[in-house]
Amino acid sequence: MLEALGPGPLSPVTARFRALVGAMLSPALPVRLDNQTETEVQLRIERPDKPPEYIVILDAVKEDERSLQLRLARLTSESVADQHVVVLSNQGWLPEVLTKAAATYGSRLKLYQVDSDGKVVLGSPSGPLATAIKAQSDLPPSQETAEEFAARLTRAESDKQSQLDRFDERLAAQKPVATFVLAAVLLALYGLFRLWATADGALWTQLQLGICVPRFVRDGEVWRLLTGGLLHDQLLAVGLNVAVLLSLGYQTERMLGLGRFLVVVVASILCGALIAVLPSPQLLIPRKFGFSPALFGICGALVGMALRTRGLPPETVAKVRKVALAGLIPSAILAILSGERASLGGGFAVGLVLVGSGLLPSLRLSDPDPPSGPQRLGQQVMAAVAGLLLGGSLLTALLIGKPWSQEPSARERWSRTMLASALGKGPAGTATGKMGSAESAAPEADLSPAQQSLPGVGISLVLPKLLGEPQLQGEGAQQTIRFGDLIGKLQQLDVAVRRHEAPFKKQAQVLVAFDQALALVRADKQREIAAGRLTLLGEPRNFKVGDMPAVELLFSGAEGSKAKTAVLVNKQVLVVLSYLYSDLLPPNLQLDLSRVLASVKDEFADSPVEQAKSKKKKKSKKRR
């Protein structure tokens, strides 16, 4: 009569046992079924260049202490090096028995106890076992019969392969459209830049194309935050960025989909640009970070996928980790060598957070096939918004800057803006009308010479009044005197003066001191000069001030800046001029360092004390 009622409900332990076995056989885990009975399932994990790892799951709901010890002894008799045994039971005596067994069998068995709620009572599982326990603990226990459970295990391998095949098909259907379009846009913009740029106006053309200038962004030209990430002025830079984009973006876009991929790109560029702009919102020097923040964002997204692997097939996880590692190593080297480390790091952090946190999840095995309506709509909305931001910013920059125009008025508007700010004639306007019409008069520079006395050294020189008053920089022996500033006036001059311990009496002493000073400057050891990271260009230009030797060296700097260093040694002092200026500074405002050195005057020589000493020396010579 009881048999007619059918089998009774499963015990919670047995239900949890079957749920855990099902979680272990998920397509997302590299687990294969080796053997099965109603209360014991043996699983195998193949590992490259290592022996397999075995996991045995036991339903111990009906076990007593003796029968469990016999089962464990049988498992230890097998010639298996790495075996993990999970015992499903709520019995209170079990932890003590398993602890004793672990002490007896040593490293041959690693023992764990899991209760009917999926909670680990004993041991610390890791790897796929820990993943499966975590996955099944949130699921309701299965109530399938023994026959249904056995049939499911029999079909487990074929079902897993079918799911993996469907996932590969869906992944192959994801075409990396945005990756190829972005690569084409980067190359096209570089080609247009070379087509429109003149020999002496490359930086101006970049400005018209929409390169990021902090001061202009602060004044309302916010589109430069995005267009600055699409512009490059060197073939090597754009070539490398396109190559990395095609390498990393191909896999990343297929995993994320078009919309999520574009969100990562746009968010990374915006973050990198804001990091470049916010610390110096008054800076008029363009920030040339290019597409690199977006590439670092893509690399961060790959790392996020490699860290958050739940729901991805093992082969896909291995491929993602390989691509992430291939991108991470050169990215780290580039970040160390780059002058825009903060912007690159910001882009990487954005990609890592968005994908690693699950805000922009990648394609998963559990996703419906075909995608649900909300999923498709979400991808379409994200793609439309990101594309509109990028395309709208670029179109705005082209319409306002008109880089193709050969009319002088098109560039004069930008010239007046930069010149007005450089001369302190009010806030820099924008190309949208704040700077005035093309016919408005350009501001006049106060280029009249002024004798500037260097405080504390008894030396004066002649400089244009527009550079302003001297400012002390540094402390002690490293102290220099600065005129102007690169942010506000697009140029700054650092003057370092060192008096000899005693005036040189012979020309040979002057020449020796001059050679030493030149060697220090060329080796970038003249630390009194704060000119940033510079690259020496060409050979030094030697000239004379009176009969004293002098030299001028030309350097190229970062972000559209240049530098000159001039050295003069006479019988009283060593003078080093370090001049840093923007390419955007009009030529008539740039300093001629040879003229500045020619104006150097020793104020101590005209003092009453020095004049009295000179008269005494002349009298003593006459007496002799």
Q: What is the helix content?
A: 40-55%
CATH fold-level label of the largest domain: Rhomboid-like fold
Name the CATH architecture of the largest domain.
Up-down Bundle
CA-based shape = elongated
Strand order of the largest sheet: 9-10-11-15-14-13-12
Q: How widely separated are the two ends?
A: 145 Å
Top CATH class of the largest domain: Mainly Alpha
What's the domain count? 4
Give a count of the beta strands, DSSP E runs of length 2 or more: 16
Summed up, the helix count is 20
Low-confidence stretches: 1-6, 426-443, 525-532
Q: Biggest sheet, in brief?
A: 7 strands, antiparallel
- What would you report as the Rg, rounded to the nearest angstrom? 37 Å
Keywords:
624 residues, alpha+beta, Rhomboid-like fold, 7-stranded antiparallel sheet, 6-stranded mixed sheet, 20 helices, disordered N terminus
